[in-house]
Amino acid sequence: MARKLSTRKRPKREDKQLKEKKKIESEVFDRYSMLILGGFLNKKVIRSVDYPIASGKEAIVFRATAGEKFKGEGEHIAIKIYKIETSNFSRMQSYIRGDPRFLSVGGVKRGIIFAWCRKEFRNLQICKDAEVPAPIPYFFKDNVLLMQFLGEEGIPDSLLVDVGSDNPEKDCNTLLGYVRKLYGKGFVHADISEFNILMHGDVPYLIDIGQGVLLDHPKAEEFMRRDVENILRYFRKYGIEKNAEEVIRWVKSA
Ligand SMILES: Nc1ncnc2c1ncn2[C@@H]1O[C@H](COP(=O)(O)OP(=O)(O)O)[C@@H](O)[C@H]1O
Ligand SMILES: [Mg+2]
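# magnesium ion complex -> structure
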């Protein structure tokens, strides 16, 4: 009897609704990430998850309110959740699932995402040690990263691309200085652009640093060049002209 019930085909309409509901849920969080957040709530590291600040293809960033057991600074915490269910990868997975040759792919994908999250945590620590402004990393578990919330009075800071620079000469030099300082510590951000810089008051902060590499990476120098060129390209519209090759030489002399 039970078997019969469980194999009974649902009416089409309900099927569609269920699919839609599942889609919306997975857009916000997948079940797995929800359990991890539940853990942080239970341990009173966070008191609440307040609202999504931004949602991209690979990750979603929330503002959360710190709980009583949280020993860091500030009332708020930024939580970055790397999406497990909703990347292109998961569309691929739906083709692969059920094929016995690919039984372990789900695990591989998770592994890659978890490694990415762990790498972002470590990379943020490198910035902290180098005293380059970036969110202070607090904790991570699997695909969930807790870090310093960058904002003022609970309102998240804006990206450089949205607010622009009030002092382009200074901001340009500051950012090139970050590249040099990190290079000197053996590290390259590898995705610096006006889309990954938050203006915290008048101090630019580097964010989104999961792809950062150590200098022994074969493309480290190429990535550093690209970071420098992105900064110079952005500030060129403010009339700032610097010779990229000279800047790169200066970075490498760190
Ligand atoms: N620590 C933070 N404090 C406040 N806002 C943040 C923080 N980190 C990220 N954000 C916001 O979330 C957005 C997405 O974060 P990011 O790390 O760039 O992820 P993505 O991989 O989706 O680009 C950012 O553009 C920024 O607006
Ligand atoms: Mg980004």
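# post-check
The CA atoms of residues 80 and 145 lie 5 Å apart.
Residues 105-130 form the longest helix (26 residues).
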